[in-house]
Every structure is written in structure tokens, then in C-alpha cells.
Design a protein that fits this description.
125 residues; Heat Shock Protein 90; alpha+beta; two-stranded antiparallel ribbon; globular; 4 helices
């Protein structure tokens, strides 16, 4: 709620927008706990596919990660759009987990994600 009020103020928009995005992701993660529990019990996990650009999803996550880890560099390159039927929320969480783990547990501080229209690969440098 406070982030929404700050966002309406206008002068802190980029930072507040990232806070709001992160808060929404945490909220979705909390809502996903029952899915995780079902997965541990060998039950199926629900997937909600919508037409999305994976490149845009990754750019949002990278922006968030880069802001909270200024000592690391995360770059994304794609030779074309990565549009498909994706579960946006699960892919945001996957990308966030992979990048945060690479930063926290890796010895290298440069991460590059490259897409070619059919595949996205992560590289540590």
C-alpha cells in the first residue's frame, strides 16, 4: 500500500516500481506454498500459460536483481523475441532463483542470459 502511494507521487517511480514488483512476487510465492506442498506429495502443480515475451520477463527480473545486487552485473541479449505460451509467474520465480543463487553462491559476478528465439541460456563470467 505504501509503495502504491509513493508510486502515485511520481518522483520515485523507478525504485518504487521495483519495490512493488518484488512485493507482488513475494505475495505470489506465499500463494504458491500449497503448490509446492502438493509437489512434495507427488501431486500435480497448476500452470497458467499466457502469451508472453520471455525476454521481457527476464528483463524485469534482471532489473530487480541488479538493483538489489549493485556489485554484480547481469546482462541479457536476445537476437529475436521470445514469445510463447509461458507461465509468467513461475518463470519470473525461476529466473529470480537462478540469478540470485548465481550471485550468492558463485565466484563470478557477471551473468549473461542469451536468447535466440527458441532457447535461453545463462552464462557466468
Amino acid at each position: 500500500m505504501s509503495a502504491m502511494l509513493l508510486l502515485q507521487g511520481g518522483d520515485l517511480t523507478p525504485g518504487v516500481s521495483r519495490i512493488l514488483t518484488s512485493t507482488h512476487r513475494v505475495d505470489r510465492m506465499m500463494n504458491d506454498i500449497p503448490d509446492f506442498a502438493r509437489g512434495q506429495l507427488a501431486a500435480s502443480m497448476s500452470i497458467t500459460r499466457t502469451s508472453s515475451d520471455l525476454g521481457e520477463i527476464l528483463c524485469r527480473v534482471i532489473d530487480e536483481i541488479q538493483t538489489s545486487n549493485p556489485g554484480s552485473t547481469v546482462l541479457f541479449y536476445s537476437s529475436e523475441k521470445l514469445v510463447g505460451q509461458w507461465d509468467r509467474q513461475r518463470l519470473e520465480q525461476l529466473a529470480s532463483n537462478l540469478l540470485n543463487n548465481a550471485i550468492q553462491h558463485g565466484t563470478r559476478k557477471h551473468i549473461i542470459a542469451k536468447g535466440d528465439g527458441t532457447t535461453v541460456r545463462y552464462f557466468l563470467r
